[in-house]
């Protein structure tokens, strides 16, 4: 990460060369004819190459203490201010392996993708659940109360049915089922000897 920060600071320094070397009209008036003299030291070297940002600030501070011309102090002050704006207070030295590891650990796309195996496993379980055995019950109660059309039929009839069982879907698509059904019938027919009647059916 140190070399990335160094490259970034050097780009900033290149972009600010014109701004660093400019002085205000008041500072030019104070300098007088000295503005016609070419700059010396660190500022002059910026016209030919970009220095190491980690050393440029220290060198600029040393030259600022030695300079006696205000026109030379302006670009040095601007350079120090510019580097202070972009430099980081804490520097961490990382190897290439550490940089790659941190990048992968903090990559949100990779974090989201890490949930895909668990999601796909859940979908498999959900699909297999269709072949699980299912317990079911059915209950019905029917009542009929109407005038009897003849003496051999009842006017009040009640039919109660309850069924419980298990069904299962096979991978072949066939369904198997077993159940037990109980039925109770009541009829007020006068000639019916057993009333109500109970029947059971196992399927």
Topology overview:
Blueprint: H1 2-15, H2 17-20, H3 25-31, H4 42-45, H5 53-66, H6 70-86, H7 96-105, H8 108-113, H9 116-128, E1 134-145, E2 156-169, E3 175-187, E4 197-202
Antiparallel strand pairs: 1-2, 2-3, 3-4
Helix pairs in contact: 5-6
Molecular structure report:
By secondary structure, the chain is an alpha+beta fold. The longest helix is centred in the middle third of the chain and has 17 residues, at 70-86. The radius of gyration is 47 Å and the shape is rod-shaped. The two termini are 75 Å apart. The protein has a 4-stranded antiparallel sheet, with no helix packed on it. It is built from 9 helices and 4 strands.
For this entry, give a set of tags.
203 residues; 4-stranded antiparallel sheet; alpha+beta; 9 helices; single chain
Query: What level of helicity do the residues show?
Result: 40-55%
Largest sheet: 4 strands, antiparallel
Structural class: alpha+beta
- How does the overall form come out from the CA principal axes? rod-shaped
* Radius of gyration, in angstroms, nearest whole number: 47 Å
Low-confidence stretches: 17-24, 26-39
- Give the DSSP E fraction (strand runs of 2 or more residues): 15-25%
Question: How do the SSEs run, as a string of H and E?
Answer: HHHHHHHHHEEEE
Task: Give the terminus-to-terminus CA distance.
Answer: 75 Å
Number of helices: 9
Mean pLDDT: 75
Number of strands: 4
Query: Strands of the biggest beta sheet: in what spatial order?
Result: 1-2-3-4
